[in-house]
Amino acid sequence: MSSKMARRARLLRIGLNLYPPYIGAGVRVRHISPDFREVRVKMVLSWFNRNYVGTQFGGSLYSMTDPFFMLMLMENLGRDYIVWDKAANIEFITPGKGPVYADFRIDHSLLDEVREQTAGGAKCLPRLHAEVRDSEGTLVARVQKTLYVRLKPRLRQAG
Predict the structure, then answer these.
(1) Does the N-terminal or the C-terminal CB of the chain have fewer CB atoms within 10 Å?
(2) What are the structural domain ranges in the chain?
(3) Which Pfam families match (predicted)?
(4) Position 154 confidence tier, pLDDT thresholds 50, 70, 90
(5) What pLDDT, in 10s, does the model give residues 48-70?
(6) Which architecture characterizes domain 3-155 according to CATH?
């Protein structure tokens, strides 16, 4: 892992924490590992993200989880790959009544699988999961993201 990658992780964290929609929603990126394989996000309950019944607004809960798997794969796979969000699902389990947290992780096996499936020019649609929990560890929501990953056209093997 290079110091360049660690610097990029730090700058991305700062940039996301200055992103107006995240400021308004009370979302803070607490940690991005230097290798972009772990991210931790926190969202406080405030007037700006409180719904009609006084709990975390569902759109804010989803928003706090939205970009991270895509960003993590982009950084780990490099510029030779197209990485897009393809689909998402969020299941609300219990109301968020205070600060909530989400952790995102990817491992070598996922990266190896994506590289193997896309080597011949095919697309890969990995499904990744994250959980949103409150300060006591109670599950607030489950999120599933499906990403689209493929080598850029100039690198695909003619088949």
Answers:
(1) C
(2) 3-155
(3) DUF4442
(4) confident
(5) 899 999 999 999 999 999 999 99
(6) Roll (3.10)
